[in-house]
Structures are given as structure tokens and as C-alpha cells.
């Protein structure tokens, strides 16, 4: 069975490929945070998408999930 990760429960490899593409990672990161009910975190991902993209890459490779730098 394949490992599931962020981006709507897609396989890890698919999520990793999507995280490599900056605009896709930015859009999916915002949508993912909105779907988790983290409105403030989703709104902050819009202007700080570049920083979040770097964090998403690091955390996707290391922990198989996107960077959750604001969990409240």
C-alpha cells in the first residue's frame, strides 16, 4: 500500500512532485490549509508563498507533509 501524504491524501510521490512546482505548491498549500480549517494560516500563505514553498519542500522530503508553521 502506498504512503499517503498531504495534498488531499495523494500518494507521497505525487505530492512531492506537486510540491516541487512553485505555483502548484503555493495554490495547493493554500487550499490544504483552508480545508483543514486553518483560515489565518491559509491567508498568510498567499503573500508568503515563496517562503512557504521552501519550507514545504523541506518538510515534504523529511516528514512527508507540508510545513505547518501556524497551527492555531
Protein topology:
Blueprint: H1 6-9, H2 12-20, H3 22-35, H4 39-45, H5 49-63
Helix pairs in contact: 2-5, 3-4, 3-5
Describe the 3D structure.
With 72 residues, the protein is mainly alpha-helical. It has five helices and no strands. The chain has helices spanning 6-9, 12-20, 22-35, 39-45, 49-63. Helix 2 (12-20) packs antiparallel against helix 5 (49-63) and helix 3 packs across helix 5 (49-63). The longest helix has 15 residues, at 49-63. It starts with 5 loop residues before the first helix and ends in a 9-residue tail after the last helix. The mean pLDDT is 86.
Runs in which pLDDT lies below 50 for 5 or more consecutive residues are none
Task: Specify the structural class.
Answer: mainly alpha
For the residues shown, what is the average pLDDT? 86
Q: Tally of extended strands?
A: 0
Helical fraction: 55-70%
Instruction: Please work out how many helical segments DSSP would assign.
Output: 5
The fraction of residues in strands falls at under 5%
Biggest sheet details: none
What is the string of helix and strand elements? HHHHH
Distance between the termini: 32 Å
Rg result: 11 Å
Basic shape: globular
Amino acid at each position: 500500500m502506498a504512503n499517503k501524504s498531504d495534498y488531499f491524501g495523494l500518494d507521497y510521490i505525487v505530492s512531492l512532485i506537486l510540491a516541487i512546482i512553485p505555483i502548484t505548491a503555493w495554490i495547493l498549500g493554500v487550499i490544504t490549509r483552508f480545508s483543514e480549517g486553518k483560515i489565518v494560516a491559509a491567508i498568510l500563505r498567499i503573500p508568503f508563498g515563496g517562503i512557504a514553498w521552501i519550507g514545504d519542500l523541506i518538510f515534504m522530503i523529511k516528514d512527508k507533509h507540508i510545513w505547518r508553521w501556524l497551527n492555531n
